[in-house]
Design goal:
With 130 residues, the chain is mainly α. Helices cover 53% and strands 11% of the residues. The protein contains 5 helices and 3 strands; from the N terminus they run ααβααββα.
Length: 130
């Protein structure tokens, strides 16, 4: 994956973060709000399950993360409100999918960062994100 913002796996063709103007207070607040919604281990696991499967119903998602369907629905609503997920009804089931491609890249970069920090803590400083 290249780091310019262009490419099939990236979320968009906007300029790279480093090439942008300094965030305004409003932009920083909006970004903090996005990170706040994503700052949940449960929501991150649900997003990962959806990325892996492309689309899942609430019951299958609940089984994959070991939660009750109602609790999963509550978490999915937070992600849907942010515009990260879309849903469709099929009879009595509601199926969810990730519609914001930036989320896939963000999860990948976040996992990379976590692994890098862990590797540095163990004294093996390699950089997977370059």
């Amino acid at each position: 994956m290249n780091r310019t913002g262009a490419g099939e796996d990236n979320c968009c063709t906007r300029p790279a973060f480093k090439e942008r103007s300094l965030l305004t207070p409003i932009q920083a607040g909006g970004l903090a709000a996005v990170f706040k919604v994503l700052a949940s281990d449960t929501r991150l696991r649900l997003l990962h399950a959806l990325v892996l499967a492309d689309e899942l119903c609430v019951t299958d998602l609940a089984a994959s993360v070991g939660m009750k369907p109602q609790a999963v629905s509550n978490q999915l609503q937070r992600l849907s409100d942010l515009g990260i997920l879309a849903s469709r009804r099929d009879g009595n089931s509601i199926h969810y999918r990730v519609v914001d491609l930036c989320v896939r890249s963000l999860l990948d970069q976040g996992l990379c960062l976590m692994e890098e920090v862990s590797a540095r803590d163990r004294g093996r400083g390699r950089n997977c994100c370059d």
